[in-house]
Specification:
- Its EC number is 3.4.11.2.
- By secondary structure, the protein is an alpha+beta fold.
- The protein contains 26 helices and 33 strands.
- Among the domains are: 133 residues, Neutral Protease Domain 2 (Neutral Protease, domain 2, Orthogonal Bundle); 102 residues, Immunoglobulin-like (Sandwich); 266 residues, Alpha Horseshoe (Zincin-like fold).
- The strands form 8 sheets. An 8-stranded mixed β-sheet has the order 6-5-9-3-2-12-15-14, with no helix packed on it. A 5-stranded mixed β-sheet has the order 17-18-19-21-20, with helices on one face. A 5-stranded mixed β-sheet has the order 28-31-26-25-33, with no helix packed on it.
- The structure holds (3S)-3,7-diaminoheptanoic acid (B3K) and zinc ion.
- The site of (3S)-3,7-diaminoheptanoic acid (B3K) has 12 residues, from strand 20 and helix 2.
Length: 876
């Protein structure tokens, strides 16, 4: 029952061309008047009912072409407004509603955060402001008059350009009128009003348009906006160079708010951000925070073309803007930083978030065909796998044809609301490439596995690769078709160089990319003069699982010598994962865990290799996370055994390499003031990764070193690394360090979030009690999504052993939190509940306990649609 299906899509029967809003703000009684210029659609019969969406609305007035409607002429409820027989000629509907921003704890529609009025309308929040055709294919030109008490809200911001400001005569109120000339869907509407500080900037576009930039923050935070402003300007320049896209208004404003359901929102000309993705200074933000801010600023800015100028026809097409925009922000960061390091980080994220999603009950296609609640589809699959799909198009078409396809997309669809099919057509037309089978990447859920067997005939000088592919069954999709899988490859020789070869047969090849299309391919490569080691899926050319018969020795050869840095990293991960899987089995069976000496040696070598980028060395030294090991194991997972295997390996490396790691650690100290640039961040990352090993070496001197590291840190990256190691390795001084950190940062909520997360992700059995106690700490707030994610979210997703406790107490705690939160903020509650997504892969006892907790949630009366949807799909 219920739900929305892609195949039921119908164009809207009416069009809304203009929206004139007059919004008179007050904390508990905001009055909204919306004048909508409405026109019957070309294919709509005269007299067809007009049905507008609403959500929890209070209607206080309704005029049609200036005349009041009698109650026979309309039907209104909080969730719907119907005019059964509207005029057949264009008409103006003027709707008045009254809102209570203070009571809006869902943080959708108009709400207040720390006294600042702000809005969030994607996906369906505009209908909480006024009745509307609240769907992305209804594009209108908006004017917004915002009125508020001057003292309460000296700053009044809307979409587009500022047209007029003034005082309301005889009152303590003032107003501003904003006009956005670009037709847009309602989900991109925004307003902000409050007492905020403005950090100014300016940008001149390639064709000479002067754009006034503004970042608005709470007073006192002005000096934490420099990095965000710099990132914005670099993003604007990059989009001109990389995609030929210029900014199109005279103003670009960003507002940071502290209560926000997700990361940020790309409203036209008025981006609204979670302050976590704006505010940074060396004392409170880590290198990772700086990188995230740069990426999110870029992402939201890039939406101006991919999302806003060209939007989605319906919400099933969400990946059209999200996957594409993630791809664009990844490319931006790759250009601004190190491309291989960025690629490795992105793939790590994909494997740790998207692969488990794709392997569990919440799996769905990049373009879903059915949803109960669209907000539950802002997922790693739509975003990150969606970006991989765009990347594969580029890999298959090559740089030039890809750019030509993008140009065509902008040319054809600017100003429109379109589909994935229309997007693919642009690449087809620009390249003549057949993308029919490729389109399955949008349709079929589940991570494909490719299996490879290799054989070298030294007499004939022929190397053979036998590929087979399979796509696992996923909810509602039992049978899968074979897919197009681009495999970038090289044959690596003894000395590490890419070997020459003559011909490749058995598969379509383009440059160094094999295009797998059939269930099986026997690929024959001739003219190979020595036994090669195949380096497959270079740069992670497709989001698949690769199972190969390559030996550990050969993988370690690739780890040491592959010309593709991504595959060097991947080779080490592959070896570590297989060693950790074996270790887990031993731990589970109560046997001694054996450590792979070759792996330890290889890690030691990478650590010391000064020809490599420190950031790369840091990534190479980081062992697969517990969740990654669990995913690799796939079923009957015992998280305690996984942690035991991982801890054992880490301790062994620390003991064997302790002396050399300590020397290296000492040599990496950076003199001079902190700078967030990628090179310095890389050195810190390596040094802090070494610190993790030293913290677990068991040597006295090393514990002292960790305490020193924390105490002497002059930036948050190092301080947090020190604190994390003290707490997680349970070293003497951990409690003092927690207290000192709290003391230092107690007035900075984002820094306190890190303090909460460190404690929530401690794998010790005490963690749950600590987390429970912290929910009563004055620094914690149940109503603030950042605090909640930092504590309970981090516990559920970042503490494998304690969330998945064998007594079920971790599950119960998270389920209780979800139930309590659901009444206030269903979106954040649903997101938290999705931490259960891998429950079926657990061993039987934990599986049963997780299922009980999920059932308890699913069975509660009056659940939100958001939580109900996640609970029910998880149990399917
Ligand atoms: N488009 C928004 C996400 C909206 C989420 C709605 N539940 C941010 C982004 O992807 O850029
Ligand atoms: Zn986005």
């Amino acid at each position: 029952a219920g739900g929305v299906r892609l195949e039921d899509y119908q164009p809207a029967p009416y069009t809304i061309d203009r929206v004139d809003l007059n919004i008179r703000l007050a904390p508990k009684a905001t009055r909204v008047s919306a004048r909508l210029a409405i026109r019957r659609g070309d294919n709509t019969a005269p007299g067809t009912a007009l049905v507008l969406d609403g959500d929890d609305l209070k209607l206080t007035g309704l005029l049609l072409d200036g005349s009041a409607l009698t109650f026979q002429d309309y039907e209104a409820s909080p969730n719907r407004l119907e005019i059964p027989a509207p005029p057949s000629e264009p008409f103006v509907l003027e709707i008045s509603t009254e809102l209570d921003p203070d009571a809006n704890t869902k943080l959708m529609g108009l709400y207040r955060s720390q006294g600042t009025y702000c809005t969030q309308c994607e996906a369906q929040g505009f209908r909480r402001i006024t009745y509307f055709l609240d769907r992305p294919d209804v594009l209108a030109v908006y004017s917004t008059r915002i009125e508020a008490r001057k003292g309460e809200a000296p700053v009044l911001l809307g979409n587009g350009n500022l047209i007029e400001t003034g005082d309301v005569a005889g009152t303590d109120r003032h107003f501003a009128i904003w006009h956005d000339p670009h037709p847009k869907p309602s989900y991109l509407f925004a307003l902000v009003a409050g007492d905020l500080a403005r950090v100014p900037g300016e940008f001149t576009t390639a064709s000479g348009r002067e754009v006034e930039l503004g970042i608005y923050v709470e007073h006192g935070n002005e000096d934490q906006c420099g990095w965000a402003m710099d990132s914005l300007k670099r993003s604007m320049r990059w989009d001109e160079k990389a995609f030929g896209r210029e900014y199109d208004l005279d103003v670009f404003n960003i507002v940071a708010v502290s209560d926000f359901n997700m990361g940020a929102m790309e409203n036209k000309g008025l981006n609204i951000f979670n302050d976590k993705y704006i505010l940074a200074d060396p004392d409170t933000a880590t290198d990772q925070d700086y990188a995230n801010i740069e990426a999110v600023i870029a992402h939201e800015y890039f939406h101006n073309w991919t999302g806003n100028r060209i939007t989605c026809r319906d919400w099933f097409q969400l990946c059209l803007k999200e996957g594409l925009t993630v791809f664009r922000d990844q490319e931006f960061s790759a250009d601004e930083r190190s491309r291989p390091v960025k690629r490795i980080s992105d793939v790590r994220l994909l494997k740790s978030h998207q692969f488990p999603e794709d392997a569990g009950p919440l799996a769905h296609p990049v373009r879903p065909r059915f949803y109960q609640e669209i907000n539950n589809f802002y997922t790693a699959t739509v975003y990150e796998k969606g970006a991989e799909v765009v990347r594969m198009i580029k890999t298959l078409l090559g740089e030039q044809a890809f750019r030509a396809g993008m140009d065509l997309f902008f040319e054809r669809h600017d100003g429109g609301a379109t589909t994935v099919e229309a997007f693919l057509d642009c690449f087809r037309d620009a390249s003549n490439e057949d993308l029919d089978q490729f389109a399955l990447w949008y349709e079929q859920a589940g991570t494909p596995t490719i299996t490879v067997k290799s054989d070298y005939d030294s007499k004939a000088k022929v190397f053979t690769l036998s590929f087979s592919q399979s796509v696992p069954p996923t909810p509602r999709q039992a049978d899968k078709k074979p897919m197009t899988i681009p495999v970038r490859f090289a044959l690596v020789g003894e000395d590490g160089s890419d070997l020459a070869y003559e011909t490749v047969s058995g598969v379509e090849v383009k440059g160094d990319v094999l295009k797998l299309q059939a269930p099986e391919h026997k690929v024959t490569i001739s003219g190979v003069n020595e036994r090669p080691i195949p380096s497959l899926l270079r740069g992670f050319s497709a989001p698949v699982i690769l199972e190969s018969d390559i030996s550990e020795e050969d993988y370690l050869h690739l780890a040491a010598r592959d010309g593709d840095p991504f595959n060097r990293w991947q080779a080490l991960q592959t070896v570590a994962l297989s060693s950790l899987t074996a270790g887990m089995e031993a731990a589970r069976d109560g046997a001694a865990i054996e450590v792979d000496g070759l792996l330890v040696h290889a890690l030691g070598t990478v650590a010391e290799d000064e020809s490599l980028d420190p950031a790369f060395r840091a990534l190479a030294l980081q062992l697969p996370a517990e969740a990654d090991i669990a995913r690799e194991i796939g079923s009957d997972v015992d998280p305690d055994a996984v942690a035991a295997a991982r801890n054992h390996l880490r301790r062994t490396i620390a003991r064997e390499k302790g002396a050399s790691f300590a020397r290296l650690y000492e040599s990496l100290e950076i003199d001079g003031p902190y700078s967030p640039d990628a090179a310095s961040a890389g050195v810190r990352a390596l040094r802090n990764t070494l610190l993790e090993y030293l913290a677990h070496s068991g040597a006295d001197g090393d514990a002292e070193r960790v305490r020193d590291h924390f105490a002497k840190a002059d930036n948050m990256t190092d301080r947090l690394a020190g604190l994390t190691q003290l707490v997680h390795a349970r070293l003497e001084g951990a409690e003092d360090a927690l207290a000192a950190y709290y003391e230092r940062h107690s007035t900075h909520p984002l820094a306190i979030d890190k303090w909460l997360t460190v404690q929530a992700t401690d794998g010790h059995p005490e963690a749950l009690e600590k987390v429970r106690a912290l929910t009563a700490h004055p620094a914690f707030s149940f109503a603030n999504p950042n605090r909640l994610r930092a504590l309970v979210g981090a516990f559920a997703t970042g503490n494998q052993t304690q969330f998945n406790r064998a007594d079920g107490a971790g599950f119960d705690f998270v389920a209780d939190t979800v139930l309590a939160l659901d009444e206030k903020n269903p979106q954040v509650a649903a997101r938290l509940l999705s931490a259960f997504r891998s429950w079926r892969a657990l061993e039987a006892t934990r599986r049963k306990l997780a299922e009980n907790a999920l059932r308890r949630v699913a069975e509660k009366a009056d659940l939100s649609r958001d939580v109900k949807d996640i609970a029910e799909r998880s149990l399917q």
